[in-house]
Automatic annotation (TrEMBL):
Keywords (A to Z) from UniProt: Metal-binding, Methyltransferase, Transferase, Zinc
Protein name, as recorded: Homocysteine S-methyltransferase
UniProt cross-references to NCBIfam families, sorted A to Z: PRK09485.1
Residues in Hcy-binding domain copies: 1-284
InterPro entries: BHMT-like (IPR017226), HCY_dom (IPR003726), HCY_dom_sf (IPR036589), Hcy_S-methyltransferase (IPR051486)
Gene: mmuM
Gene Ontology process terms (BP): methylation
UniProt organism field: Streptosporangium jomthongense
Amino acid sequence: MTVLDGGLATHLEALGADLRDELWSAKLLIENPSVIRQAHLDYFAAGADVATTASYQASVPAFVRRGLSAVQAERLILLSVRLATEARDATGRGAVAASVGPYGAALANGAEYTGDYDLDEDGLFAWHRDRWHILAGSGADLLACETIPSLAEARALRRLLDETPQTRVWVSFSCRDGGHISDGTPLRQAAALFAGHPGVVAAGVNCVAPSHVPSLIKEVTDVPVVVYPNSGETWNAAEHRWEGLADPAEYGAAAAEWHAAGASFVGGCCRTTPEHIRRIRERLPD
């Protein structure tokens, strides 16, 4: 059983970071990398076995748009891995998963939850390729392909995995319900793309509602299952606040049920905190 970390951006905001930017947490690679290291340290202290890097929304094109050179952009992407590695080494535990965010994250329009893209599979392959090779050669223990909303993007990532056959990965999808990824493809079909590949350590879901997780676990076969949903909260636009499940103790209890249902990797995504991870660890000891 492996306990993942929780929402990196959520904890960075709790530490005082302002992430109102299209680069989201990746902007801190430029402005305040030490706070990223602290966030990783806090998740390890809470019991996480894995630190997921601040490269989710980092890409060479995004940094170039910010006025940096391609070489500087590559250095910042590598910095995301180094910060997590430093936290790992300081605590003496765990692994580093280099986050490979979806194309939709770079669009900064919510497309990672719809799969409504302006690129086809070949375009997605080309867009991901530079960052993929940077992270595959970064020294991270594995790549975390996260919040993937479409079958076309999953196919593009599968092709990239063939280019770096020694790379270990997990692949997690965003889902519209208890059986389909965001573009409507059955999760079972999308996850099957990665079954049998020696580099794939797990497939599953992230940033989905916790209520969907039990049924989604059943859709992933022939590969270990990874789940790290959001806190279950929803945004009330009228009142400008989050509502719904956020209690860490309830989340920890739910995580134990997900593990019993077959999940081998369990953690949290948006709006989850070190306290959520601490409660998971209490329920799922080493």
